[in-house]
Amino acid sequence: MGQHVGNTAGTKLPIEVLTADEVERLADQCSRRAPTGIRNRAMIWIMYRCTMRIAEVLALEMADWNEERRELNIRHGKGDKQRLVGVDPMTSEHLRAWIVARRERVKGYRRLFCTLAGRPIKQAYIRELLPRLASRAGIEKRVHPHGLRHSGASELLERGASLLDLQDQLGHANANVTSKYLHQINPKGRRERISRIWEGEGTEES
Q1: What is the 3-state secondary structure (H, E, C) of 19-71?
Q2: What φ, ψ does residue 105 adopt, rounded to 5°?
């Protein structure tokens, strides 16, 4: 029986992890010139590489980005808990591009991500946007905000991140929560990692 995650309609759907190539193809559907495309690309990379919840992304304020340290300050995570998350160089570049475009158009609004009229972005906009981008990119998996968080966590695990590092990045209360969370995502990837451990083992009988 596969692992599942609930959706807003209350039905159970499989957790589908995107590969790094699929996330890149997804983000590439966003314009590199239009301000909304630059903004949406930055949000996709932050949800993926920073493993952030969509509500956390949309709650970020301009003052929460520390460019020198490449950190985002999540002041109101799940359970109203605060944490800092590191931002990789590529995601930082996408974020900087949006901040430049934003400063030219939006005045006097504190939220980092907003409409060009300086208003809040609704979660529904992102939830409807991602499947459209996925369809244009030829991605047949179900693509949604929390799926990007799953995908980022899976890749960090694949790259050797420790359980404690992942706990901090994901904003979990304790390591047990993180362990259960990781157990649900990308079981195929886990099996492949185990198989690779044995690669190169001799098959000749003594």
Answers
A1: CHHHHHHHHCCCCCCCHHHHHHHHHHHHHHHCCCCHHHHHHCEHHHEECCCCE
A2: -125, -30
* Catalytic residue list contains 172: yes
Per annotation, catalytic residue among 70, 127, 181, 190: 181
Q: Which of 39, 53, 102, 144 is catalytic?
A: 53
Three-point CA angle 110, 82, 186, nearest 5°: 105
Q: Which of 83, 111, 149, 150 is catalytic?
A: 149
Q: Using one digit for the tens of pLDDT, what is the confidence trace for 136-149?
A: 999 999 999 988 98
Catalytic, 78? Answer yes
154-184 confidence digits (pLDDT tens): 888 888 787 777 887 787 777 777 777 777 7
Q: What is the pLDDT of residues 23-53, one digit of tens each?
A: 999 999 999 999 999 999 999 999 999 989 9
The predicted model scores a pTM of 0.81
Cβ atoms within 10 Å, residue 164: 10
DSSP-assigned states of every residue in 90-128: HHHHHHHHHHHHHHHH--S--BSS--TTS-PPPHHHHHH
Residue 55, CB half-sphere, CA atoms under 13 Å: how many? 6
Nearest to 106 by CA among 59, 166, 36, 56: 36
Catalytic-residue membership of 125? no
End-to-end CA distance of the chain: 39
